[in-house]
Amino acid sequence: MAGFDKRVSSYEEAMEGIESGMTVIAGGFGLCGIPENLIAEIKRRAVTDLTVVSNNCGVDGFGLGVLLEDRQIRKILASYVGENAMFEQQMLNDEIEVVLTPQGTLAEKMRAGGAGIPAFYTATGYGTPIGEGKEVREFNGRHYILEEAITGDFAIVKGWKADRYGNVMYRHTAQNFNPMAATAGKITVVEVEEIVEPGELEPSQIHTPGIYVDRIIQGSFEKRIEKRTVRS
């Protein structure tokens, strides 16, 4: 069974093969469930001209936000500019191409890409700037626009637990975009908090089967809170 062992021992090995100009699909929502160490490795490698697919772009100085500092991202498909002043400024200055995408549509683009479905029809965005220039069909009296699926050269994902074969569990809301992202990369890399022995994960608890995963690494995480709200 050794040939099925997906574990790697370093983040350098985990992101081996990433090059400038590639498309990277990143799981996470805000700062919840983001592959923070894999992102840091991309920054360290100083690759540029990246297309990034993610719900948002982290915050200033953390998450995907660190890739904005050295202009490593050329284009991003996202549903939310979020609490990131640098992202906002680069977008307003036309220093980065931003394709704003409805959140559910973005999730389905990843899921469809992973399922081998090249495109799908959705009512979301019809009659708005989102739908401009896209094919329109009518089904049962309602109009739908054609949206193309997304695949990436790399998918980077944050899990909770995994076994050596790449079967992954996510913790609570940290599932968010991670399961869809994990299916849509030519190379899928998952960083987790704990790698357990085979058989410790109940089959019914596994969210991403190992067939989708190419590399798995155990890391430690800051888990920064994006916006802390407490009672007065």
Automatic annotation (TrEMBL):
<protein>
    <submittedName>
        <fullName>CoA transferase subunit A</fullName>
    </submittedName>
</protein>
<keyword id="KW-0808">Transferase</keyword>
<dbReference type="InterPro" id="IPR004165">
    <property type="entry name" value="CoA_trans_fam_I"/>
</dbReference>
<dbReference type="InterPro" id="IPR012792">
    <property type="entry name" value="3-oxoacid_CoA-transf_A"/>
</dbReference>
<dbReference type="Pfam" id="PF01144">
    <property type="entry name" value="CoA_trans"/>
</dbReference>
<dbReference type="InterPro" id="IPR037171">
    <property type="entry name" value="NagB/RpiA_transferase-like"/>
</dbReference>
<dbReference type="GO" id="GO:0008410">
    <property type="term" value="F:CoA-transferase activity"/>
</dbReference>
